[in-house]
Specification:
The protein is built from 4 helices and 18 strands. The chain is mostly beta strands. The protein starts with a strand and ends with a strand.
């Protein structure tokens, strides 16, 4: 037996989802995954490896009559992820409120269709098992987790809560123009919102500087939120653009807790529809190590950021 030793098999394959929800069916492999423990606490999981499925199978271990996750919703979960080929744990939540992980029920956003198929139609308060073939899991990125192309993933997930689908992201910041701040870089916008930045002929500031160029009236960005933005990053010391979403033709989504501190400071507390300009000293950027080859350890960064949506 691979995984953690347990004594009871999965207890139910019946879902409480509404009849119009496209429920992923269970199968002999997902039914065979043994899971014990209270919901909201890390479960003990055991299964015979290697598992082998050709399409995602989904079994409800602990049923619930709570709200059902539909396509487009954001589901907050605790989860444990295993290599179905070896039985080894790949990663897990810490099963605290702070460790809740949001997953969009949208394969275009999440790009892991088997996880979407496992979460879709699951009810708040339920525990669900998904057994997902390599092609419907992390696919080519799976090798970074130590998965072979023949390995399934076993996904055991507790559904904590559901948030409605976020409003569609704006194409560009549409807030009210704000007065320029003296001494900051100047920004001129093209029709599509793409900025051109002029850097002052002066030494960069040693402390973070922030200016709101357009003030939006949308939702406030909270700490830990997933934020959709257009952005341009310029190295004050070299004058060169080192990264920008506009050049790629589509915005990017970041979690405010997973970016450099100065970028977090530029986002948290701002509103959707706003455009912000931030100057970030090295100690709130990439630090003494920099980010080779474009950013040295003493380089100051400039970002122009359009805040387009949350979620």
């Amino acid at each position: 037996m691979a995984g953690l030793v347990v004594s009871l098999a999965a207890c139910s394959t019946t879902d409480t989802a509404t009849s119009d929800c496209d429920v992923t069916p269970s199968g002999s492999v997902s039914d065979s995954i043994k899971v014990t423990g209270k919901i909201g606490e890390k479960p003990e999981i055991s299964f015979t490896s290697p598992t082998k499925v050709t399409t995602t199978e989904r079994t409800v271990v602990i049923p619930s009559d709570g709200e059902v996750a539909q396509k487009g919703d954001i589901v907050k979960v605790q989860y444990s992820l295993y290599n179905g080929g070896t039985g080894k744990e790949l990663e897990t939540s810490d099963y605290t409120d702070a460790g809740l992980t949001p997953f969009p029920i949208d394969a275009e956003q999440l790009q892991i269709p088997g996880i979407v198929d496992t979460l879709r139609c699951s009810a708040v308060g339920s525990r669900v098992v998904g057994v997902i073939p390599f092609a419907e899991g992390f696919a080519e990125n799976g090798t970074q987790l130590g998965l072979a192309e023949t390995d399934d993933i076993v996904f055991v997930v507790d559904i904590d809560s559901i948030e409605p689908a976020p409003e569609p992201a704006l194409p560009k910041a549409d807030g009210v123009d704000q007065p320029a701040v003296e001494g900051m870089p100047t920004v001129v916008l093209a029709d599509d919102g793409r900025p051109t930045v002029t850097i002052p002929d002066a030494a960069p500031p040693t402390e973070l500087q922030l200016a709101v160029l357009k003030l939006g009236d949308g939702a406030v960005v909270e700490d830990g939120a997933n934020v959709t933005v257009h952005y341009e990053g310029i190295n004050w010391n070299t004058g060169k653009i080192f990264d920008e979403s506009w050049a790629r033709g589509e915005p990017a989504t970041f979690n405010t807790a997973q970016v450099i501190p100065g970028f977090t400071a530029a986002l948290v507390g701002q509103t959707v529809g706003s455009q912000v300009l931030v100057v970030i000293p090295p100690d709130q950027g990439y630090g003494a190590a920099g980010s080779p080859p474009d950013i040295g350890g003493t380089d100051t960064l400039i970002f122009v950021v359009d805040i387009l949506g949350i979620g």
